[in-house]
Amino acid sequence: QVQLVESGGGLVQAGGSLRLSCAASGGTFSRYIMGWFRQAPGKEREFVATVTWNGGPYYADSVKGRFLISRDNAKNTVYLQMASLKPEDTAVYYCAANYRGSFHYLLNSEDYDYWGQGTQVTVSS
């Protein structure tokens, strides 16, 4: 199976920046669609961003202009660079992978096959 391990979460002040990483193993990472989701306590899991196997990104409206998703296939790693952080960004952030591919951007958690354990991001104000 595919294993995904997130890292880079922590506590930052509003307006600050944070970079999350997700290291993948056990599959052909370069052909996976990768995504980032987040979940705050008592809330549903929310789409954040996705990137295709060849680097095409798509973002939720709430993070456009502030977050950047990227991937390094040589390192089997996907990143989420977060800037201008707001308290509403506070959540557990999850990395996810779809191994079958799609002709559409994948915005729903059910579209993903593998998930990491999550990393906590807390933004203070």
Strand content: over 45%
Instruction: List segments where confidence is low: pLDDT < 50 over at least 5 consecutive residues.
Output: none
Helix content: under 10%
What best-fitting shape do the alpha-carbon axes yield? globular
Structural class: mainly beta
**Helix/strand order:** EEEEEEEEEEE
Tell me the major beta sheet: 7 strands, mixed
Determine the mean pLDDT. Answer: 96
Number of strands: 11
How many helix segments? Answer: 0
Overall radius of gyration: 13 Å
Explain this structure to me?
The protein has 125 residues and is mainly β. Helices cover 0% and strands 49% of the residues. The protein is built from no helices and 11 strands. The strands form 2 sheets. Strands 2, 4, 5, 6, 9, 10 and 11 form a 7-stranded mixed sheet that branches. A 4-stranded antiparallel sheet has the order 1-3-8-7, with no helix packed on it. The chain is globular, with a radius of gyration of 13 Å. The mean pLDDT is 96.
